[in-house]
Write a structure and sequence with these properties.
Layout (H helix, E strand, L loop, with lengths): L1 H6 L6 H6 L5 H18 L12 H12 L4 H9 L2 H4 L5 H8 L1 H14 L6 H4 L3 H18 L1 H16 L6 H21 L3 H15 L1 H13 L1 H21 L6 E4 L4 H11 L11 E5 L3 H14 L1 E2 L5 E2 L12 E6 L5 E7 L1 H9 L13 H16 L12 H12 L3 E5 L5 E5 L4 H8 L1 H6 E6 L2 E3 L11 E5 L21 H33 L7 H7 L5 H10 L4 H23 L16 H6 L5 E3 L11 E6 L3 E6 L3 H5 L6 E3 L10 E10 L4 H11 L3 E10 L2 E10 L3 H11 L4 E6 L4
Parallel strand pairs: 2-6, 12-14
Antiparallel strand pairs: 1-2, 3-5, 4-5, 5-6, 7-8, 9-10, 9-11, 13-14, 13-15, 16-18, 16-19, 17-18
Bound molecules: manganese (II) ion (MN).
Length: about 750
Amino acid sequence: MVAVVSEIVPSDLDPIFKSQPKLSPEERALVVRAYHFAAEAHGTVARKSGEPFITHPVAVAQILADLHLDAPTLAAALLHDVAEDVKKIKIEDIERAFGSEIAQLVDGVTKLERLPTDTAAMKNGKAGDREAETLRKIFLSMNNDIRVVLIKLADRVHNMRTLGYVDPESQIRKARQTMDIFAPLANRLGIWQMKWELEDLSFRYLNPEKYKEIATQLAVRRVEREKYLEAVKARLVKEISALGIPNVHVSARPKHIYSIYRKMERKRIPFDQVYDIHALRVVVPEKVQCYQVLGVVHSIWRPVPGEFDDYIASPKNNFYQSLHTAIVDDQGKTVEVQIRTPEMHEHAEYGIAAHWRYKEGTAHDKQFEERLRYLRRLIESAAEDVSADSDAQEFVSAMRSDVFQNRVYVFTPKGDVVDLPSGATPIDFAYHIHTDVGHRCRGARVNGAQVSLDYRLKSGDRVEILTSNKRAGPSLDWLDKDLGYVQTSRARSKVQAWFKRVDREKNIALGRDVVDRELRRLGLSGKPREEVAALFGFAKVEDFFSLVGYGDISAPNIATKVLEADRKAQREAAANELVPTTEAPTRPVNASDGIDIMGGSGMLITLGRCCNPVRGDQIVGYITRGKGVTVHRADCPNVINSPETERFINVNWGSAVEKAYPVPIVITAYDREGLMRDVGAVTANENINIADLRVQTRNSIATIFLTIEMENLEQLSRVLAKIEMLPNVIEARRRVSM
Ligand code: MN
């Protein structure tokens, strides 16, 4: 089979096989077969130039062979216009004849042929939209197989070379499209050869006068320039040889008209002063030798300040590496010098195509992984690392989920490409754009239609994030894996960070307000917050506030703890009261007439603040100095430990002691009809009595002093809160009257 085919190898293919000599006999046979298939399909059709159509796919395959691409790429290049231009041939036919790999490449290129720039509908759109749409399609096909894009670029290079045969209107349109889309794409992929050729060919049609002017000036001085460069080169080779570096290649760099034009424009200088008109390239085997050569260059000639760039230490984002410098020679002429290794050179010339170059015995899968990773790095020019504080395990899982999953390529409203793991949602997209956009994300439109935030983005989607203007944050739901709002580890860590940091701040502020309000109600505004936090076992007041803000510690919790502490403090103070004094003890009271004492003798009765006896407790009375009788619980430590047994009297909860624990409170309100009735209703509902009611009204502000009697302190906070919720009430708090 191979022998038969090779007998009829058309001479058209000779240059291709010469450019790509490493193809196996089987691979050559494949290319030959593709040639015959294409030649037959295109038949007698001619191009606008009058040549047979087959010359075009052959030229495209040649460009790719010059990039040393593999046999399937070359075969697909030969077949690339078959399905597009020949109606009777379908992709299925190609698949049957050449297999799915080649069929998919051809199909990809065929789909790219129908660029939206060429359709009537897109002509009505804005230029930016058209470019975005085109790039969108190109990147989509890259997602499948980058070779599709390489074939498309080669196709465009040949079409631009032969653009002279089409009508002027098409020339301008194609040139514009090439300059706007294909040249930047070649640049992005690092294929300088294609970039420069596409730029120069476009420039020729877009600005014919300037192109001609620069081309003429280059041509006029070509002999002179080449002679000069030969002399410089000879000197350089001699000096480098003295270093003992073998295999040094010094060559004059080809001139690119468009780059000269750009420099003239950018620096506003005439043609003569453009440095890279005289340009040399030095290729040496080792990286370290690049710097040695740089030293030599700078020692022979004077370097031009600001023209040195070390792209070896800091490669460009398409991985381009070289040393760049410019020097001024003895005659005042400037020469640009690039220094690189063969590997850097290959990369610079072929870019991403270098990864598809024919390699013997390489496992396909490994190569494929390498390509994909390379491609991703190219596209993710602004890829951010996972947050710095995440630990190693998180990092590994981030790598697994973000890098090794399949990707989707979606677009911003401006047409920028965003690369996300498959399954990503609008929230992932939002966080990719900017952390703040993620935090404020409230909705999304995909291709103009509103979608839910758990929508799975698809390659090619145009995504627009709807944000809230208010200072808002992410939802806790976003962290729930079952709900699937967030797919990327980047977005997840940003959401988590928000809840850790921003929400904590919010909770602290909220908690602080709650504590302030509660202490004000309790008449303890002046109490240090640290003391309150300490009651709950917190060393840091912020930790305490954040739990209050979060709702783990309620206002009644605070009231209870604070009042308990308050009582304890007073108990200690009361204990001091019990310390024996030198004063004469007051008259002992007979235990049996306790009720009489309470009811009839007019002695002042107070309830001990140390133990706060509540109705039903076992109690004893203690005769105080000048205060009458203080009633304590029988088990009150102050009672048990007191040596002054003679001061104790028996008391009981006679009818005279109706009072429960009295709490004086003060209510401030804008005076209104029925205010007191409403306050009374609140206390009645809580089974609380009101005593000592007094109202002052000044400038229509009512200040109500009252004492409420409660059996249970936990009621206090609730009652005060309920009173505060009444209309017109400004504040209700415990009054501290000592
Ligand atoms: Mn074509």
